[in-house]
Amino acid sequence: MGCFQSKTAHLPSPDQQPPPPEPNPDLGDVNEEEPVPAFKEFALAELRTATNGFSSELIVSESGEKAPNVVYKGKLKNNRVVAIKRFSRQSWPDPHQFVTEAAGVGKVRHKRLVNLIGCCAEGDERLLVAEYMPNDTLSKHLFHWEKQPFPWEMRLRVAYHIAEALDHCNSQNHNIYHDLNAYRVLFDEDGDPRLSSFGLMKNSRDGKSYSTNLAYTPPEFLRTGRVIPESVIYSYGTVLLDLLSGKHIPPSHALDLIRGKNLLLLMDSSLEGQYADDDATQLVELASKCLQYEAKDRPDVKFLLKAVVLLQKQTEVASHVLMGLLKTPVALPTMLSPLGKACARMDLTAVHDMLLKTGYKDEEGAENELSFQEWTQQVQDMLNTKKIGDIAFRDKDFKNAIDYYSKVPSSFSTIEHNYGHN
Question: Its domain of life (predicted)?
Fold first, then answer.
């Protein structure tokens, strides 16, 4: 790695940009093989069934149940796997306004978006239904990686795909995106980054447009409480900082590093050797332009798109290859009945109680037969015997270990004789 200052490459002005590369046929609005279904209003009962009664086991929000608006993984009756966002009960008092806004967002379709496919407004419930993304969020890949840091080329691809998504939203008269951050970028089955369509709607009718720390909030929102198109550019700049540093750095601190020419302190050290100085410098300068205090001094989305497309160097390599992901179909969530759940956790008492409620009862007067309760007790006794043997074996008390182990087969045969042949 050399010193950034030795090869500073300045971004050209929008008027002097070279023509963009030839269109990539892979950048169509939607996947033609699996078209996104038309937006629709869902019945609450269908979404309740899809999430197994809004089971906590199907929550996919990174903050879990603590998130203000929880997102669930669900399976519709046509077997399509979806993400279902459930708003707090008082978020949208007017159901018609909620449906109208959701339907508007549902029309904004693009391959770089996590497309909205439906909503529900029944009683106090307000829910959005979108495509399901199986490969986590940018936040998880950047900040909580386990095996390998998020590759540089994928970081550049994220910057490009987000700019594409925002450009398309602008073309559809949706130039306001609320709280753009690393949690809003998700990865599909192919490992391609997509921008969540949930951000095209406020968290509530009169609620906050920004839920992140105030240090990352656009200055004009802090002054006026209003979101303007330039606010989205500022938030895009904060995401660029995330991509560059692999950390969530407050813009004020990052700008101090940039002004002080301490760019190496800004860069993610785990990326050493993965990038050219000129490319990193250009991305740093673009972030700096986006984070200007005055909204009028920030570039527009077209400028962002032209700037980041020039940094794409490995366009022929699939995203899942760059990320080291196995490309597997989206797994359907397992929907277990209460009896199935009890069996899965081997709760024999709960199984017995459920059987009783469905009409099961021990046969009276039957000789040499075990009731369910007696059988479960014998199984438990056998397991306890084995456990004591295991403890004795670990303690090198081999005599007692042999004694207890020798009782286990006899326990099995007793159970089989009394119950297995009935």
Answer: Eukaryota
Question: To 10 degrees, the CA torsion angle through 155, 66, 200, 322?
Answer: 20
Which of 29, 94, 179, 347 is flagged as catalytic? 179
Q: Mark whether 166 and 146 lie in a shared domain.
A: yes
pTM: 0.71
Over residues 250-254, mean pLDDT: 90
One domain for residues 236 and 187: yes
Q: Which domain holds residue 192?
A: 133-331
The gap from C-alpha 244 to its chain's centroid, in whole angstroms, comes to 21
Q: What is the pLDDT of residues 35-73, one digit of tens each?
A: 789 999 999 999 999 999 999 999 998 776 666 689 999
With tokens 């403890």, the residue in question is 391
| Bridge partner residues of 74 (DSSP) | 82
User: How many folded domains does the chain comprise?
Assistant: 3
Is 192 part of the annotated catalytic residue set? Answer: no
CA dist 274 → 142, 149, 270, 271, 322 (Å): 15, 11, 9, 5, 12
Looking at every residue in the chain, the average pLDDT score rounds to: 81
The full DSSP string for 162-198 is HHHHHHHHHHTT----SS-SGGGEEE-TTS-EEEEGG
Tokens at 215, concatenated: 């240090």
What span, in angstroms and rounded, lies between the C-alpha atoms of 6 and 276?
A: 12
Residues 58/64/68/74 CA torsion (nearest 10 deg): -10
Residue tagged 């691809």 (tokens): 157
Query: Which two three-digit tokens encode residue 41?
Result: 């209003």
Q: Choose one of 331, 347, 370: the last residue of a domain.
A: 331
Same domain, 243 and 256: yes
Q: Are residues 138 and 207 in the same domain?
A: yes
